[in-house]
Amino acid sequence: MHRQNITQNITNGGNKKKGINFIESIIEKDLAKGKNDGKIQTRFPPEPNGYLHIGHAKAICIDFGVVQKYGGVCNLRFDDTNPTKEDMEYVNSIMEDVRWLGFNWGNIYYASDYFQKLWDFAVQLIKAGKAYIDEQSSEEIALQKGTPTRIGTNSPYRNRPSEENLDLFNKMNKGEIPEGAMVLRAKIDMSNPNMHFRDPIIYRIVNHPHQRTGKTWKVYPMYDFAHGQSDYFEGVTHSICTLEFVTHRPLYDWFIDQLKEFYPKDVNYRPFQYEFNRLNLTYTIMSKRKLLQLVKEGFVKGWDDPRMPTLAGLRRRGYTPESIRNFVEKIGFTKFEALIDIALLEHSVREDLNAKAKRVSVIIEPIKLILINYPKKKIEMLEAANNPENDLAGTHQIAFSRELYIEREDFMENAPKNFFRMTPGGEIRLKNAYIVKCIGVKKNKIGTIEEIYAEYDPQTKSGLPASNRKVKSTLHWVSAEHSLPAEIRLYDRLFVVENPSEEKDFHKLINPYSLIVKTGARVEQELENAHPLENFQFQRLGYFNVDLDSKKGKLIFNRTVSLKDSKGKVFP
Ligand code: ATP
Ligand code: MG
């Protein structure tokens, strides 16, 4: 897989018409031709076996996006044909996440709604001599499949009479046959160059109750025997999926051809499958199976842990739906697999929050700063801009007093020449307040600095006509008395290597420092009533949001992303 060069214009996938991707261009052509009578219907078909992740967001954006753009309907379809792995918890989270991303579906469907119809269709195929029950083990069947360069071998059960096949199929579904002992296969062509045509398995026995159909069924259709069929039953016109299904497409079409015979619909109607490149992100795994492992094995605190690439995790981390949609728009849809730099996703949320987030002052590792010439009881309420990028955002007040906190790392006793922050004898400006000069420190017995002393200059209040004094830096601060305690959770990447999916065992690739908790932070009073998930810019520190566990008296914030990309510049 090549690393996609994200500085280059990739969003068009080689299309001549500017601003549209290749799928939109197909749709425009279909509309112009009046294909399917000008109807556009898509579906987003998740399997409810986990939470949605950022990769799914890409699929959602195209499935729902094209009907928003061209008119039509996109339905939500739960591809629930695998009862052992599926759960209603996942169904509910998927609905919440699609809505959160900003999309509305027409209908909600479940592949399990079609179990009867699919069974009937399978029975029809058996009767027509196009399907048979195979009693071989899955290993034997796999061996007989051949390879792309070597044709397959017919199963000894291939020419079983229809009545016998029907009888066994019924027995399979009554629970009379053990799991794995028999499967139903479509009888197509064991020498077809496309391996998917070599008598694909279309039904298998699963002895596990289904979360919607209970114990009604003991046999369940395979993906290839459910997906296109569901598309056909629902009236989907554009079945958009990822590139790994390219080789399935001829089989998709074959089954549609069969279906059209058994269930004639409008003669002009048929669904078509189109494939785009799936999203792969650096430092991220996207397989639901592995994400479930991270949850189950306790590497993260749940599906919505802010380090997870799930939509629930990203939401809790402070990502906005707009930032995710903009990201998808930027990476575009092509026909080539690529690995996208996660910095591009981070850039997207930074860009969105820069425009929207209120600026506040927070000290993560406080050290006390005492202004010895500032009156003891005096409190000034200073104006702080909510967002300098947006005049309409207004201001809020921040209390200033004699005792303040600043960041410990903003002070250095024996500073090198290029250290421009606070240092003995040096002057700095306190944001929205005054220029102050450090005059000394107090240390404890082991030499750790406990307090910094400074003098402020009343003539230099922000907003007064500029004095001719120049200072090299402006530091943020909070008032000791007026600030509130808070916990700050600093997140980093969950994996230490660029492409953790390439490694079979991801355990040794996990970043032990992916979460650092700072418990002694001080935040300005403005944050007292911040609501869950609200986004802020902590000045000079980054973008943060209110964690879902935060409450009055025990404030908790998550770092969404730092202010700048510190890991190397990857975009213009
Ligand atoms: P997994 O194999 O991890 O379970 P999946 O692809 O089987 O994932 P589904 O729930 O079947 O997950 O996916 C629903 C839809 O989302 C499918 O159309 C699928 O192609 C699409 N999708 C899944 N992962 C990605 C991805 N990384 N990028 C783009 N689309 C994706
Ligand atoms: Mg799937």
Automatic annotation (TrEMBL):
<dbReference type="GO" id="GO:0004819">
    <property type="term" value="F:glutamine-tRNA ligase activity"/>
</dbReference>
<dbReference type="InterPro" id="IPR000924">
    <property type="entry name" value="Glu/Gln-tRNA-synth"/>
</dbReference>
<dbReference type="InterPro" id="IPR011035">
    <property type="entry name" value="Ribosomal_bL25/Gln-tRNA_synth"/>
</dbReference>
<dbReference type="GO" id="GO:0005524">
    <property type="term" value="F:ATP binding"/>
</dbReference>
<dbReference type="Pfam" id="PF00749">
    <property type="entry name" value="tRNA-synt_1c"/>
</dbReference>
<keyword id="KW-0067">ATP-binding</keyword>
<dbReference type="Pfam" id="PF20974">
    <property type="entry name" value="tRNA-synt_1c_C2"/>
</dbReference>
<keyword id="KW-0436">Ligase</keyword>
<keyword id="KW-0963">Cytoplasm</keyword>
<keyword id="KW-0648">Protein biosynthesis</keyword>
<feature type="domain" description="Glutamyl/glutaminyl-tRNA synthetase class Ib anti-codon binding">
    <location>
        <begin position="357"/>
        <end position="457"/>
    </location>
</feature>
<dbReference type="InterPro" id="IPR020059">
    <property type="entry name" value="Glu/Gln-tRNA-synth_Ib_codon-bd"/>
</dbReference>
<comment type="similarity">
    <text>Belongs to the class-I aminoacyl-tRNA synthetase family.</text>
</comment>
<dbReference type="InterPro" id="IPR020058">
    <property type="entry name" value="Glu/Gln-tRNA-synth_Ib_cat-dom"/>
</dbReference>
<feature type="domain" description="Glutamyl/glutaminyl-tRNA synthetase class Ib catalytic">
    <location>
        <begin position="39"/>
        <end position="354"/>
    </location>
</feature>
<dbReference type="Pfam" id="PF03950">
    <property type="entry name" value="tRNA-synt_1c_C"/>
</dbReference>
<feature type="domain" description="tRNA synthetases class I (E and Q) anti-codon binding">
    <location>
        <begin position="474"/>
        <end position="547"/>
    </location>
</feature>
<dbReference type="InterPro" id="IPR049437">
    <property type="entry name" value="tRNA-synt_1c_C2"/>
</dbReference>
<dbReference type="GO" id="GO:0005829">
    <property type="term" value="C:cytosol"/>
</dbReference>
<dbReference type="InterPro" id="IPR020056">
    <property type="entry name" value="Rbsml_bL25/Gln-tRNA_synth_N"/>
</dbReference>
<dbReference type="InterPro" id="IPR014729">
    <property type="entry name" value="Rossmann-like_a/b/a_fold"/>
</dbReference>
<protein>
    <recommendedName>
        <fullName>Glutamine--tRNA ligase</fullName>
        <ecNumber>6.1.1.18</ecNumber>
    </recommendedName>
</protein>
<keyword id="KW-0030">Aminoacyl-tRNA synthetase</keyword>
<dbReference type="GO" id="GO:0006425">
    <property type="term" value="P:glutaminyl-tRNA aminoacylation"/>
</dbReference>
<dbReference type="InterPro" id="IPR050132">
    <property type="entry name" value="Gln/Glu-tRNA_Ligase"/>
</dbReference>
<keyword id="KW-0547">Nucleotide-binding</keyword>
<dbReference type="InterPro" id="IPR004514">
    <property type="entry name" value="Gln-tRNA-synth"/>
</dbReference>
